[in-house]
Amino acid sequence: MKVTMTVNGKERSAETEGRTLLSEYLREGLRLTGTHVGCDTSQCGACLVHVDGQPAKACTVLAQDCEGAEVTTIEGMANADGSLSRIQQAFQDHHGLQCGFCTPGMVMAAAALLKDNPQPTEADVRHYLEGNICRCTGYHNIVKSVLAASGQSVEPVAAE
Amino acid sequence: MYNFELVKPSSVADAVSALQGEDAQALGGGQTLLPTMKARLAQMETLVSLSHIDEIKGVCTDDQGRLCVGGGTTHAAAAEALSGYPALASLAARIGDPAVRARGTIGGSLANDDPSACWPAGALGSGATIVAVGSGGSREIAADDFFQGMFTTALDEGEIITEVKFPVPEKAAYEKFLQPASRFPLVAAFVAKFSDGVRVAITGASQDGVFRWTEAEQALSSNFSADAVTGLAAPDGSGMISDLHGSGDYRAHLVRVMTARAVTAAS
Fold it and tell me: Which of B19, B58, B101, B198 could form a disulfide with B158 if both were Cys (CB 3.0 to 4.6 A apart)?
C-alpha cells in the first residue's frame, strides 16, 4: 500500500506493508538515512523525528498510521540556505557529538524541547533527554549544546 | 515483525466492528505492543489502530465532578489537561520519556496492565471507573474489579477502553522509585485521601500486578502521616517480583518506603 505524508515540507510517497515502521519508510522508502536506528527497541532515541509537531521514536510508529502526517527529520533541520540551524551549530560549537550516531535524535529531541520550553534549565534539558542514549556518554557537552542553542550561558555547566 | 493488515477506524463503532474479525488486536499508541511484535512475541491478522478516533481523546469533567480521560488520550495530553488532579498529572508527566508520552495512551496502558506500569496505580489508587465498549455495548468496570493479575484485566475479547473516570481526592501523590533503564518504576505508590478513607495502590512490586496495600490504607485512614506507614511491617516479600534489579524482599521494603514518601508529598 502506498503511503503519502509531508516530510520536511514536501509531499513524499513510498510503498509499505502493514508492518513497515516509520523508520524503515524514511530510511529505505525515501532514502532519508539521517534518521538512525540504534536499538530498534524504543530505548535509544536515535530515530527520534517529529510527527505532527510531537517527538516520536520512528522505530515504534507504523508508517501507515502516519498517512497524511507532517513529519520532520534531521534532513529538515538545516536552514533554507543549507547552513546549520541554531541547534546544529551549537552541537558543533560545543562538541556535542563524538561518534555522531545518536546526534540526529539528540538534535530532534532538543528542537522538540526548545519549541515548548525556549529557556530550559540544565535540569530540564537532562530530564527531557532521558529517552536519548549517547553510547559515547558525551552527555555533558550535549546538555551544553542545548543550553547554548537556547541562547543561555553554558558557563555553569562548563564549570562542573 | 510478522506482517498484518492495519485498519484505521475513525469511530468507536467502527473499531469495535473491526475487532470482531478473526485474530484482530487493538493498537493504542503502540509503545508496548510494537516492541512486543518486533520480538515476535505477538502476532495477529489485523491490527486495529485506535489513534484516529477523536471521540476517545481529551479530558472533561462529569456531573459528579469526576475527571473523565478519554481512552485514546496520550500521556502527554493527559499531563497537560489534568491540572485539576495534580498527582495524576504528575504521574502522566513522568511515564517513559517525551517521545513515549507523545504517543502512548492511558487506554493502552490500562488494557496492557504491565505489572510495573504507572496508570494502573493511578486508576486503582483513585478508585477510578473504566468504561469499556465491545460488541455487547458499553459497560463500566470499577478499578477494584478491573485489574486481575499481571497482564490480565476484566476486558473481554474485542473490548476497548473509551474512558476512565477519576474521582478527585482531597490529597494525593505518586512516588516512583525509577528503574532508569526501562523508565518504569521499580516500585511506586499512589496514595489518595478521600473524605471517606485513604486508598494506597502499589505497582512494580507484586507478581500479581498492581494491588491495594490495605494495611496501610487502614492505618492512614485514622492517621494520615508517614509515621503511620513506617510503623507497619513491610508486606510479605515472597509474592513480590524478584529479578536482577531487586529481590522480592527489597521490593517489599520499597513498598513501605515509597508509600511513606507519597504520604509526605501529599500532606
Answer: B19
Distance between CA atoms of B1 and B6, rounded to whole angstroms? 13
Cα–Cα distance, A112 to A106 (Å, whole number): 10
CB proximity A44 to B under 8 Å: no
- The span from the CA of A34 to the CA of A111, in Å, is 16
**Residue in the block written with cell 513529519:** A71
Q: Name residue A3's beta-bridge partners.
A: A14
Considering only alpha carbons, which residue of chain B is nearest residue A113? B98
Predicted ipTM of the assembly: 0.94
Asked if A130 and B183 come within 8 Å (Cβ–Cβ), the reply is yes
- Interfacial residues of B (vs A; Cβ cutoff 8 Å): 1-6, 8, 27, 30-31, 34-35, 37-38, 47, 49, 51-52, 76, 96-100, 102-103, 180-181, 183
Count of beta carbons in the 10 Å neighbourhood of residue B171: 15
- Tell me whether residue A159 is in a domain: no
Residue B20: CB atoms within 10 A of its CB come to 11
Return the pLDDT at B22. 86
Q: How confident is the model at residue B71 (pLDDT cuts 50, 70, 90)?
A: very high
Write the CATH number of the domain with boundaries B59-166. 3.30.465.10
**Cβ <8 Å between A113 and B98:** yes
Residue A21: closest C-alpha in chain B:
B34
Q: Do A60 and B2 touch (CB under 8 A)?
A: no
**Domain that includes residue A69, residue range:** 2-76
Residues of A in contact with B98 (CB under 8 A): 55, 109, 112-113, 128, 130-131
Q: Which residues lie below 8 Å from residue B25, measured CB to CB, with a gap of 6+?
A: B19, B33, B42, B44, B46, B47, B48
d(CA B56, CA A71): 24
The CATH superfamily label for domain B171-266 reads: CO dehydrogenase flavoprotein, C-terminal domain (3.30.390.50)
* Among B126, B137, B168, residue whose Cα is nearest residue B13: B137
pLDDT at A155: 78
